[in-house]
Amino acid sequence: MWALVLGGLALAARAMQHFPWSQVWGALAGASPGWIAVSTVLAVLSLLAKGGGWHVLMTGGRAAGLRESERAHMLGAAAMTLTVSVGAEAVRVGAVVPRLGVPVGRAVAAAAWSRIAETISLVLLLLPAALLTMPPDFQHLRLPAAALSVVAMVVVALLLAPGLRRRLLLPALLRKFPERWRERVGEVASVGGGRPMSEALALAMLNWLLQWGSYDAGMLAVGIHVPLAASLAVIVAVNLGGIFHLTPGNVGVLQAGTVLVLGAFGVAAADALAAGLVLQAVQTLPPILIGVALVGRPWKVLREFGSGDGDGDASNSGPVGVV
After folding, report:
1. Structure letter (DSSP) for residue 250
2. Are 120 and 156 in contact (CB under 8 A)?
3. How is the chain split into domains, by residue range?
4. What tens digit of pLDDT does each residue of 268-302 get?
5. What interhelical angle do 269-295 and 253-264 show, nearest 10?
6. By the 8 A CB rule, do 238 and 252 touch?
């Protein structure tokens, strides 16, 4: 096993030696500050949309406390660039519980449902993507993408139909769990439905549209002019590749996805890698800087969830119902 790993690393190092790095640095040196600024603004707005989706699920749609939820989400986003996803979720849940007064169970359930909403929304975007201009290598993906979008529409209909959820889906779900777990499972399931879920889905879709614009602007920053389908395909590839978030900020995954996808659209590897590096900076530096501004010191971003910033007790693990 280790021999295979070391052999793969040796081959990668050999390939990197012959990579046209001078072209990469040249593309970065000539990058457009204006397009980078546009990409950055859109990326930050997408984070706010994500935080808003988490908030409406966590509070049942209340507007009160949105600022605290966004603060906690930004800290979680900063931690995501420095650690793995579990640590980032701990940061944002631990930061919001003492400030917003929401039980830990509710915050965790809302975080899980917000991820589900984001996944569904991304799959829904595959339908219009299937109608956009695609390179020959991606033509065979049109039908599966459209089929997945239809499945996502059915899931949305099931989630947002209160009578169907209450009378059919929830009882069927609860029967699959031991009786001692059913009350808690029912409380968690209740978070992901009704009007809060519809608002979370809308905000999740807004997040992806903003990300789409951010990725496209990042590519334009280094002079890459490709169809809109290319930037969306990069988003899908990066999110699929980073589903387990094995590296902080998906470093490496983002660059690999960008090079592989843009290569299918006829973009040179050096230019694609330059775009990946720009997007990495746009996606990771703003959350870190915002997180540092919120807590005052860089290392406190990762300590935030442990102390609750001194404003309350983060150990509250009561029921997931809205307080």
Report:
1. G
2. yes
3. 22-142+196-306
4. 999 999 999 999 999 999 998 988 888 766 555 55
5. 140
6. no
